[in-house]
Amino acid sequence: MNGRPVAVVTGGSRGIGRGIVLSLAGAGYDVVVNYASNADAAREVGKEVEARGGRAHLVRADVSQRTDRRELIDQTVATFGRLDLLVSNAGVAPTVRADLLEAEEESFDRLIEINLKGPYFLVQLAARTMIEQQAAGIVSNPKIVIVSSISAYTASVNRGDYCVSKAGLAMTAQLYATRLAEHGINVYEIRPGIIETDMTGGVKDRYDDLIFNQGLTPIRRWGQPEDVGRAVVAVATDLLPFSTGQIIDVDGGFHLRTL
Ligand code: NAP
């Protein structure tokens, strides 16, 4: 097997996805940077990949759309000829946080489509490609990373739709880890805690108070996209070869119970 490995990172243009893309470029990967609408941000990330010696290919694709998912994988194979790593990271928060007793079905449907159904079927497509390429000797032990959230197990009654979508994503990782082990494909779930991105920009003051004054996380700082990027690189560079379905908490210790 020759050449640089290739990763697809959904939502790679901003926030956590951008941190993952740059970490992977630094680790020797060429990267397909997926985005939904903000082409300028994706172009900037592409330049940063090239500055790190990697190649970047930008693909606009809405992960909730079947034809876009197909296009994303097809363009990856057409451009680079191989797929070593899928990082399913793209996701959205509800446009309006609404109490469980008031929340609308439209928001629920939107979050399930983008955060759960899209990744579920994108992983399926990527896995089929990886199985074929592994049999053909094009890649060796490709991997899949699913970015979920502490919301997979933390009840926030003002965004139940988001929590349900992330809980479903956690099971998605378990399912594919079980199914794909026989094909030599390990699957990991990365659970970020509170990470400083556009998504959390609107609640910054509240989280500042929780982290710095109330000790919500034992490690008293905001998580950075690079924290997640480094966890992805650990997986991508085969540091966890006998682990699959593993949940990797990148949350400053948020998940710890204390008394
Ligand atoms: P962000 O800053 O809002 O960035 C979201 C990224 O996803 C952007 O690149 C965006 O593309 C892309 N995207 C949005 N909808 C998409 C779609 N339908 N198809 C393809 N790409 C799409 O969000 P983030 O904070 O980095 O979050 C990334 C992931 O981590 C999400 O799954 C989120 O749920 C999860 N997470 C975040 C936190 C946190 O504290 N920030 C904590 C736990 C989990 P455009 O630029 O084109 O819009």
Automatic annotation (TrEMBL):
Keyword field: Oxidoreductase
UniProt record, GO biological process: fatty acid biosynthetic process
InterPro entries per record: NAD(P)-bd_dom_sf (IPR036291), SDR_fam (IPR002347)
Top-rank taxon, per record: Bacteria
GO molecular function per UniProt: oxidoreductase activity, acting on the CH-OH group of donors, NAD or NADP as acceptor; quinone binding
First and last residue of the signal peptide: none
Pfam families, per the entry: adh_short_C2 (PF13561)
Family: Belongs to the short-chain dehydrogenases/reductases (SDR) family.
Protein name: NAD(P)-dependent dehydrogenase (Short-subunit alcohol dehydrogenase family)
Organism in which the protein naturally occurs: Micromonospora pisi
